[in-house]
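> forwarded from #structure-qc
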């Protein structure tokens, strides 16, 4: 369940409610029937998630069942064990933290725009997505370097008379 949180960015409650019928292997999508925003959404089923799900036994209608095969209501024991083994502070919430890692990794890749990330995280607003999409220093430095490279290329390709004088 923790690996799937990392591979999909799904919320804890979405994973608890996830049923096998919500996974469309043929189309390659996961249906989130009760998203935080209240309406049903779909997110793509990536290869890592497909591989994870192949290793999960189908003992219940729920993908990650709780007691007696019913809907899971907690992951506290596993979360605490993971948090303690990783040496993370007691305030760290592993499931929520994995969602942040998912978003940050995609944002830092430079290959996923904010709108796509918003859809993957099933956020209503890009403002919320921005809170999740922490960029690494190296990503920011690479973007800045790209800006400098573009400017240098423009300056080198155009004669001095055609360059627009920039103020400061």
């Amino acid at each position: 369940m923790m690996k799937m949180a990392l591979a999909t960015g799904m919320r804890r409650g979405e994973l608890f409610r996830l049923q096998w019928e919500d996974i469309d292997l043929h189309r390659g999508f996961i249906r989130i029937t009760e998203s935080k925003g209240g309406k049903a959404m779909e997110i793509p089923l990536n290869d890592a998630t497909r591989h994870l799900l192949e290793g999960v036994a189908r003992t219940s209608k729920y993908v990650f069942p709780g007691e007696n095969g019913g809907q899971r209501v907690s992951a506290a024991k596993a979360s605490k064990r993971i948090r303690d083994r990783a040496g993370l502070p007691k305030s760290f919430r592993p499931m929520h933290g994995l969602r942040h890692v998912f978003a940050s990794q995609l944002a830092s890749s430079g290959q996923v725009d904010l709108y796509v990330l918003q859809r993957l995280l099933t956020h209503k607003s890009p403002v919320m997505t921005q809170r999740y999409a922490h960029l690494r220093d190296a990503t920011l430095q690479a973007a800045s370097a790209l800006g400098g490279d573009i400017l240098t290329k423009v300056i080198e390709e155009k004669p001095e008379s055609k360059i627009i004088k920039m103020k400061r």
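QC bot note: The chain has a mean pLDDT of 85. The chain has eight helices and three strands.
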